[in-house]
Write a structure and sequence with these properties.
Chain A is of the alpha/beta class and 285 residues long. Chain A has 10 helices and 14 strands. In chain A, 38% of the residues are buried. Chain B folds into 2 domains: 122 residues, abc type-2 transporter like fold, CATH 3.40.1710; 193 residues, no CATH class. At the A-B interface, helix 2 of A face helix 8 of B.
Chain lengths: 285, 373
């Protein structure tokens, strides 16, 4: 299958700081790829490099078959990029914003397209409302609608669901899947693990470097970590004592329970042994 | 209460310190302007360029010319050969005065007849014309009394022997509003046009819509022209309103071609919008854009010849003024409206505006980035 994104060794530096460090990424057409990583790990910069908003200091590749640097305009015409910060005009109405985007892309049958987009969004009755008055969830869905108005082959979404309530997030992801079903490739950055699980595959980036690649299950598999859950009164309070124990990578309270994990199962068992006896149940996950 | 007040004050200072450009402008600009305008502005203008046509080269006429020169108000820069040439200089604003001494001047003076010296003044700006003309008559008489001694003493005319004929051209009644109203056109257009476009682009940056715009397939030139065109329309309406009010309330009517005026105005509006756009590409937020606009606006009021006679400023200030579009537009508008100037008369100003437009647009386009780098 053709690759929608095929970039290799992308490097971006700001002064002495290397924000993106030799990131290579290939995504096949029609796939949803989750782009995971902590804040400041270079997710946004990588997305901007791919859509032609930034010029790479090293590396290169193609996006939808077009060269990243030389064929910027062609990429811009065929890709939709949703910025992390809301990028539509708050002092225009919903319809006016969509019409503006449509005109910039030089779309024909503008009225029809905008009408259909509004219908799909379920915002027909509010099309004359100023965008500034919309709630966060609606703004994001509108931004997505604006992104796909010109029927791009690739969607680059930068933390599209940040600050959006769970119900709106679910609706948003349903839309992403429906676009993917139409053959659109999606690269979406997120912090949420539940969202990562809804992707076909995941790319994990940290400190500007690509750390892991694969499906959610594969990445968990690759991590090679074993984990236990402790239940019982006061189990969640044990985190500080367990955190520094040998063989324990992380210990975190989840409600009244405690999750403990480490790379070596035997070492982990030894570490939690003293606590197991005190009438608490531990089960492996 | 004091603690909370202090918290706000500390925060404000910290934020202000981060915004280096604003900070620099707050201190740099007033100091610069104080120096600039303190030295440049002269409400009693000296060394105004003057043309002299002397058809009668004698000791007496030379005395008269040097007497006019020694008032300090006139500086003889041109020696046109004909009256037509002199008129053109006046019309194009290259000289403020034309002094004409007729060929029979000395002969008439010797015969004890009335001898005339003719001074034509460009009186569009009554301030620039008033004092030099008032100083001319006493200066001439004094010089003749002083210099014509010995064998020439017989020539020394009785008081009133030399008659000074003054012609205040273009604005014979010396009405300030005839000069101010066309000038206002330049100031108002500079003020609104520069500021509006400067804010138009920085607003996109401040509100975060810039990144979205850049991610779409629009070209810098398209953004620039697209942002500028609506304001050209607004500027045109402004001009129409100003001209209409001038006519109805102040009786200021244009002597020259309205079409030419419209053409010059359209060019000037475009230049201002290009400047505004350039400002928006070098500033980060709307506050900075506003301050930078003021940086253009103030000299446009003070150094363009709007408030004070242009020719009365020191040479370096005139050079600065020449770089301002408002200066050229001011001459263009006053030329057309007061002097009935035609295309040839104002072509120099149009050319200057065109050159400024080219330079500013080139800078704007080179500064405007298609990427976020």
């Amino acid at each position: 299958m053709a690759r929608a994104i095929d970039v290799h060794d992308l490097v971006k530096r700001y002064g002495k700081r290397t924000v993106v460090d030799h990131v290579s990424l290939a995504i096949e057409q029609g796939r949803i790829c989750g782009f995971l990583g902590p804040n400041g790990s270079g997710k946004t910069t990588t997305l901007r490099l791919i859509c032609g908003l930034l010029t790479p200091d090293g590396g290169g590749g193609t996006c939808l078959g077009h060269d990243l640097v030389r064929e910027r305009d062609a990429i811009k015409r065929q890709a939709g990029y949703m910025t992390q910060r809301f990028g539509l005009y708050e002092d225009l109405t919903i319809r006016e914003n969509l019409e503006f985007v449509g005109r910039v892309y030089g779309l024909d049958h503008l009225k029809d397209r905008v009408g259909k987009s509004l219908e799909r969004l379920g915002l027909e009755t509010r099309q004359r409302q100023l965008v500034g008055t919309l709630s966060g969830g609606w703004k994001q869905r509108l931004a997505l609608a604006a992104c796909v108005l010109h029927e791009p082959k690739l969607l680059l979404l930068d933390e599209p669901t940040a600050g959006v309530d769970p119900k709106a997030r679910r609706a948003f992801w349903d839309e992403i899947h429906s676009y993917a079903a139409e053959g659109i490739t999606v690269l979406v950055s997120t912090h949420y693990m539940d969202e990562a699980e809804r992707c076909h595959e995941i790319a994990y980036i940290a400190y500007g470097e690509l750390m892991a690649r694969g499906s959610a299950a594969e990445i968990i598999e690759q991590s090679g970590l074993s984990a236990f859950i402790a239940r019982g009164p006061g189990a969640d309070r044990l985190a500080p004592q367990l955190r520094d124990a040998p063989g324990v990578t992380a210990a975190a309270a989840f409600g009244a329970t405690l999750h403990v994990c480490g790379p070596d199962r035997d070492a982990l068992v030894r570490a939690i042994e003293p606590f197991r006896r005190r009438s608490r149940t531990c089960s492996s996950i | 209460m004091w603690q909370r007040l202090l918290a706000i004050i500390v925060k404000e200072i910290q934020q202000l310190r981060r915004d280096r450009l604003t900070f620099a402008m707050m201190f740099g600009v007033p100091i610069m302007q104080l120096l600039l305008f303190g030295y440049a502005i002269d409400t009693d203008p000296h060394n105004l360029p003057t043309a002299v046509i002397s058809a009668d080269d004698t000791t007496v006429t030379r005395t008269i010319v040097s007497a006019l020169s020694s008032t300090g108000y006139m500086r003889f820069t041109h020696r046109p050969r004909s009256e037509a040439e002199a008129n053109a200089l006046l019309q194009q604003g290259k000289v403020q005065f034309v002094v004409t001494i007729p060929s029979d001047f000395t002969r008439r003076l010797v015969r004890g007849e009335r001898a005339q010296v003719l001074i034509d003044a460009d009186a569009t700006d009554p301030v620039a014309a008033g004092t030099p003309l008032a100083a001319a008559q006493p200066a001439i008489e004094q010089a003749l009394r002083r210099d014509l001694i010995g064998p020439l003493a017989g020539l020394n005319p009785k008081a009133g022997g030399v008659e000074l004929v003054l012609q205040r051209r273009y604005n014979p009644e010396g009405k300030a509003r005839l000069n101010v109203v066309p000038g206002l056109l330049a100031v108002i257009l500079t003020m609104t046009m520069v500021m509006m476009t400067a804010l138009a682009v920085t607003r996109e940056r401040e509100r975060g819509t810039m990144e979205n715009l850049l991610a779409m397939p629009v070209k810098p030139l398209e953004v620039m022209i697209g942002k500028i065109l609506p304001y050209i329309a607004i500027g045109s309406v402004q001009v129409a309103v100003i001209l209409l009010i001038s006519r109805l309330l102040f009786d200021v009517v244009s002597e020259g071609s309205i079409a030419l005026l419209c053409f010059g105005t359209a060019l000037f509006i475009t230049v201002n919008l290009a400047i505004g756009f350039t400002i928006s590409t070098v500033t980060q937020n709307q506050l900075q854009a506003m301050q930078a606009s003021l940086f253009i606006l103030l000299p446009s009021i003070l150094l363009s010849g709007f408030m004070f006679p242009f020719r009365g400023m020191p040479e370096w200030a005139q050079w600065l003024g020449e770089g301002l579009p408002a200066t050229h537009f001011m001459r263009l508008v006053r030329g057309i409206m007061l002097k009935g100037a035609d295309f040839a008369d104002i072509s120099g100003n149009l050319l200057a505006l065109g050159a400024i437009l080219l330079m500013v647009s080139a800078l704007a386009i080179s500064r405007y980035k298609v990427t976020l780098d």
